[in-house]
Each structure stands twice: as C-alpha cells, then as structure tokens.
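STRUCTURE:
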C-alpha cells in the first residue's frame, strides 16, 4: 500500500537528485546565501496527522506567502468593503509590476501582487497602528502552530528589504497619489517589509495553513479564525493569483490553491484534505520555487488531491 509517508520520501529523493534547481533570489544577501540544495516538505491532514521530510524543520523567509495572512486579517476586519481598494482578478504580470496601476487608477488587480499587498498593509496599519499591526500579525499566526514562540521575524531581512525596496516605495508612493495609500508611506511599507521577513519552517507553515483547509477554523483549538466564506475567497484568490503570471500554469500542473514567496516557499491547500508547505530556494523565471512546484505536482499525481479531479477521494493514500 502506498502511504503518504512513502510518497513524500520518494518526492524528496527525486528533488535531492534534481540537477536543474533554479536560482535563489539575490536582491538581498540573506536570501542570496541560502543553500540551493535545501528541500523540505510538510503535510498536515484533517485529523492532524503530520508528515514531514527533508529540511521541513529549517526556518526560511516566507516572503510573499505572508500575503495570505495579511489578507486574512484585513478581510476579517474590513469585510467586503476591502474590494473597493484592491480587486479580485488575475494580473498576468510580474509580482512587482507597476504598469497596470496607472490605467486602473491606483487600484491593484489583486492582493497577492506587491501593489495589492501594500494596500492590505496600509489597511492593517490604519486599523491597528504601525507597531501594533506587527504584534497582531504574530498573534494571528502563533495560535495555529504547536510551537508558537518560534514564529518570528528576521529583523536583518526586514532591514535589508527596507534598504533596497525602491520599487515597493515607488508602488506605494504612486498609489498614494490616487489616495489608495492612506498612511505615511514609510509606516505602511515598514509593516509590509516586516511581514515579508516572517520566518517559518515548512512544518510551521503547513500548520498555519490549516485554517484554510478547514473552512476557517483553527483545528488545534476549534476556534473560528475567519468565516467559511472568507476562507473560500482566499483559496480562490490563491488559485487565480498566488503565483503571479505563473498562476495559470501552476493551477494546471498542481490543481491546488497555492501561494509562493521569493524565499522559495509555497503554501498549498487541498480543501477538507490537507495543508501542505514546501520549500526549495531555487526560483523559476516567474519567481516561484522551481522544485517546490514540481514536488507539489508529484504529490497531487500520487494522491489525487487536485481540486479539479472528478473524484478526489479515490486515490487518497493513508
Ligand atoms: N514575491 C515575493 O516574495 C516578493 C517579496 C519581496 N520582499 C518584495 O516585496 O519584492
């Protein structure tokens, strides 16, 4: 019988021996010096059963995967009104693109491109204040994991994001001219750079993602983290926009809602089945983890977990 444990071991073995691994992000030294040979994967099921392989306990910079969590917080506090400040459509352009903003009057296409995530950061800074927003983010994440204290920010990454984030500054200032950034630009960006610098292991990231697997509940406490409707909205956006202009190919290859980050992490969710995190720091041309995508593709081939499968339960391994 094929078990999930044996499936992920075989995936890790394939990734360990892969010769083409992509390229690590090199815009700041803490990302540029990450070992290209790292690979980790973690899968948490509905019953809490957890399978990990490789470097699943090694913390890495989650970067844009954090956009899922900031959006969750903003949707919780602002509700549907949020969609007046950021749209819900695929962008078809790079994560840091500025071109659509002029035509679309400073309203970003979706909350997962940088411009959209900066608007979300602005909403959270308005709601909570600059420093308190940081505390709130950690308070949102920590109850979802079994080792809460260890989820933290890499302050060196945050500092270097700030020191080199000229394009993000351009995006924020440009949106400010349309009135879609309401705080002092530096304050909003400060929170944005802070969230990019969140550090988590695959094991923690998969645990954090469980509220999206369950339709909005924290499976550790049974508490509601968000409404079922909001959880579905976030999964839909992850499917359509979670990999920028690589989202279509990801949806076809993997068939799960997923969100990538330039640190090489991907959070993917099989609703009602599993929360999955994978990490391989080498990126493809679209800035998404090359082997992380392949590993998720393999996982879905073996398990039948694609949301597009006519009968997703048939091949469920135990
Ligand atoms: N795709 C990403 O992970 C981008 C995050 C990066 N810190 C940026 O803002 O440019």
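SEQUENCE:
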């Amino acid at each position: 019988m094929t078990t999930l444990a044996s499936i992920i071991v075989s995936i890790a073995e394939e990734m360990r021996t892969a010769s083409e691994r992509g390229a690590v992000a090199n815009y700041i030294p803490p990302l540029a010096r990450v070992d290209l040979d790292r690979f980790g994967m973690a899968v948490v099921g509905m019953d809490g059963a957890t399978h990990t392989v490789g470097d699943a306990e090694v913390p890495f910079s989650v970067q844009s995967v954090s956009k899922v969590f900031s959006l969750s917080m903003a949707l919780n506090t602002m509700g549907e009104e949020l969609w007046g400040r950021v749209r819900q459509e695929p962008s078809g352009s790079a994560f840091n693109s500025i071109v659509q903003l002029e035509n679309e009057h400073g309203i970003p296409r979706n909350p997962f491109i940088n411009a959209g995530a900066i608007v979300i950061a602005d909403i959270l800074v308005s709601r909570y204040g600059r420093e308190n927003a940081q505390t709130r983010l950690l308070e949102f994440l920590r109850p979802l994991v079994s080792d809460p204290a260890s989820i933290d920010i890499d302050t060196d990454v945050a500092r270097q994001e700030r020191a080199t984030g000229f394009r993000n500054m351009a995006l924020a200032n440009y949106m400010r001219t349309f009135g879609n950034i309401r705080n002092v630009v530096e304050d909003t960006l400060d929170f944005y750079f802070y969230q990019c610098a969140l550090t988590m292991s695959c094991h923690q990231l998969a645990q954090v993602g469980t509220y999206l697997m369950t339709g909005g509940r924290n499976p550790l406490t049974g508490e509601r983290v968000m409404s079922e409707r909001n959880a579905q909205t976030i999964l839909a956006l992850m499917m359509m926009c979670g990999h920028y202009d690589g989202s279509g190919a990801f949806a076809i290859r993997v068939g799960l809602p997923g969100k990538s980050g330039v640190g090489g992490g991907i959070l993917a969710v099989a609703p009602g089945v599993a929360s999955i995190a994978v990490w391989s720091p080498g990126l493809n041309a679209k800035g998404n983890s090359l082997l992380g995508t392949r590993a998720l593709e393999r996982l879905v081939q073996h398990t039948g977990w694609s949301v597009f499968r006519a009968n997703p339960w048939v091949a469920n391994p135990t």
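REMARK: Residues 64-198 form a domain with the Beta-lactamase fold (CATH 3.40.710.10).
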